[in-house]
Amino acid sequence: MALSLAFAALALAVMWHRWGGTVEDSLAYFNTARYLRGEVPFAELRAPFPYRVTIPALAALWPGDLRSGFATLNWLATAGTAVTLSYLVFRAGGERRRVLLAGLLAIVSVPTYWYAPYLLTDPGAIFGRSVFALGVVTGQPWLALAGGLFATTVREENILLLAWLLVFGRVGWLRGGIVLALAAIWLIVVRWYVFPGLPTYLWVPNIGTVIAALRDQRSLLSLVSAGVIVIPLAVLAWRHVPERIRPLKGILLMMAVPPLYAALSVRIEGRAIWSLYPFLIPIAVFAPGLIRRREK
Fold first, then answer.
1. pTM of the predicted protein model
2. pLDDT band at 164 (very low <50, low <70, confident <90, very high)
3. Is residue 293 over pLDDT 60?
4. Number of domains in the chain
5. 33 lies in a domain?
6. Is residue 271 part of a domain?
């Protein structure tokens, strides 16, 4: 409990300076929440952002100022991610300092400072992914299903997590199939019945997009700052992780595909690496030499 409160306080301190800001994508999510409150017309919505409705809907239901409510949800999700990843490392046999490091890597990071206070859906999706990862590592399929389903309602690409559970036999076909079907139904209902008639969009890989991204110093700096610590540590730890952590390596590679496709089609920034923290951090904290004292 004390560690959870400490993580919550630390996350609040890191996020406070940029609390409730809007820029680029976050404005689209903010308008979605405002639409759900009846403050803006349907014409203000821009696909695909309204389809990721869960966090904006919760923010719209939150009493008081919409910006503050949205940011508060992101704060709770960020603190929850730190607690979940720390517990995951503990259950995987990590020594106390590795447990603490997992939470610190989730909070004391450029993405948490730069993106988490904004009105984005990423913190909610990352929290769902963390719960999914905990379920996989601890052998609790119901927890993995719940985390994967919640993450899918936040961002559509997380349906891959539910498919992974089925393909690799982590859940029974009946139970897993039902949850996967529920996730698919959710996506269909939101897309064609809750927000019908929005202008269609299509992401197509384009070499011009890649060249533009390589010339965008801000995007490159965002990528480097998000991955400069966790990626090298994860590379060092790749062959040394405990048996329980090993499934996360395959999941990490699988979930790297959607942001890679986005990089080829739209743009790329540090949020792409941030979204992989639930799988990167449990690997990274087991880098050899990171904790010098022998584990008991």
1. 0.95
2. very high
3. no
4. 1
5. yes
6. no
